[in-house]
Design brief:
Length: 407
């Protein structure tokens, strides 16, 4: 494909099958304009150049197709210095200590869910496990009442599948509050309740009591930030787990190795993030005339940072198309990088490792298998990668070992 050819980056039917074409782009035209107003960057070094220069490649407005009011921008829709101040507040809830505290919760809930599922002969592992567990962990970290989790997740899914992510509105109204008044009212009430002196020390409480440059953020800002944490991990962690489970279910030798050598699980997760990143690319807005790798980019154009391509860059990774545990923990861009490095990356890694450890401990090789008629279909989202479903069957009702049984 030449730089003048058209490739629709906003159509999942194109982006879900980009591996071969991005390999060709890396070889012949590493920076190109595959569709009007969009420049795709395919090599690792060029992607990193974009990610670490927020002044030239702005993240303001994120994926929105309309200009966003300042107060309604999430962290991913801001630039420094406002982004820097609010990210510092958010980071206080994603410290190593806070994230590590979620290990036991993740493990216990993974065991409970898996032992329930194994009572049935066949299930969709995405809908009933990998799409459930990460959301429970996120809501627990934030301090949501667990009894509210199903409703909160339902609201979040309704929001993500509406016009709001692109247009900041639906037919019901403008902004999060106008478009989803019930969800917004719930978030506002929860934040307000955390202003009491006896409120628990959790993420929502810290947000409710925070100050930015000596001022208390408005209710709109606090609502937006609270919603962002829920929305930010609702599909990416599902994709991350789904891709690794799909690989485990197709590769008995990998399942056996992780079961017998659980110390290899972190490397297995990192290699899966490299080869099958949950997000295929992120977008930045070019603020001035510039160039990348000798290719001219105009102010106002959108720069597409090709995460999935950079993670398979031959200049960085030996034998890049192969999944290999001997890489250790390869440097990759699955969580983006620079100023906008994913704030939940540490939590995602904890959830991933604990989930895979629990699964491989409870189930031996062959205890869980893909349904005979299973056909892989990717999630129908233009910038995401992962299985839309994983239909599996259990070899016997008692396949899972008791959680108390020795590993």
């Amino acid at each position: 494909m030449t730089a003048e050819a058209r490739f629709d980056l906003l159509d999942h039917r194109h982006t879900q099958d980009m591996w071969e074409i991005t390999r060709e782009w890396r070889r012949t035209t590493p920076v190109l304009r595959p569709m009007e107003g969009h420049v795709y960057v395919s090599r690792f070094e060029h992607c990193w150049d974009v990610l670490r220069d927020p002044a030239t490649f702005s993240n303001a407005n994120g994926m929105k197709a309309v200009e966003m009011p300042e107060e309604e921008r999430s962290l991913g829709e801001m630039d420094p210095p406002r982004h820097t101040h609010l990210r510092r507040v958010m980071r206080a809830s994603f410290t190593r200590r806070s994230v590590e505290a979620q290990r036991s919760f993740t493990r216990a809930n993974a065991e409970e869910l898996l032992c329930e599922l194994r009572q049935r002969p066949a299930v969709d592992l995405v809908a009933e496990f990998t799409d459930v567990l990460p959301n429970l962990v996120t809501l627990n970290l934030m301090g949501f009442p667990m009894e509210d989790a199903p409703q909160v997740v339902a609201w979040a899914r309704e929001l993500l599948h509406s016009d709001w992510p692109a247009l900041n509105r639906t037919e019901r109204g403008e902004g999060l509050h106008g478009a989803f008044p019930e969800f917004s009212h719930y978030l506002d009430s929860l934040v307000e309740s955390r202003r009491r002196p006896d409120a628990p020390d959790d993420m929502i409480t810290r947000l409710a009591r925070c100050e930015v440059e000596g001022e208390t953020p408005s209710a709109t800002v606090l609502r937006t930030l609270t919603a962002q944490v829920i929305l930010g991990g609702i599909s990416t962690s599902t994709n991350m787990l789904g891709s690794l489970f799909y690989r485990l279910l197709r590769d008995p030798s990998l399942h056996r190795r992780l079961r017998e050598h659980p110390a290899s699980i972190p490397a297995a997760l990192e290699e899966s993030l490299r080869v099958d990143p949950p997000v295929l690319f992120v977008l930045r807005n070019c603020t001035r005339e510039t160039e990348i790798g000798g290719f001219s980019i105009h102010g106002g154009e959108r720069v597409v940072v090709g995460i999935s391509s950079a993670n398979r860059d031959e200049a960085i990774f030996e034998d890049p198309e192969r999944y290999r545990l001997d890489r250790g923990r390869p440097r990759h861009l699955a969580f983006a990088g620079g100023t906008h490095l994913c704030i939940g990356a540490g939590l995602a890694r904890v959830v991933g490792c604990e989930t895979i450890e629990t699964f491989t401990r409870l189930f031996d090789v062959g205890d869980v298998q893909l349904a005979p008629n299973f056909h892989f279909e990717g999630v129908p989202v233009f910038l995401e990668w992962g299985p839309a479903r994983l239909d599996v069957q259990f070899s016997r009702p008692d396949a899972a070992r008791s959680p108390s049984a020795p590993a």
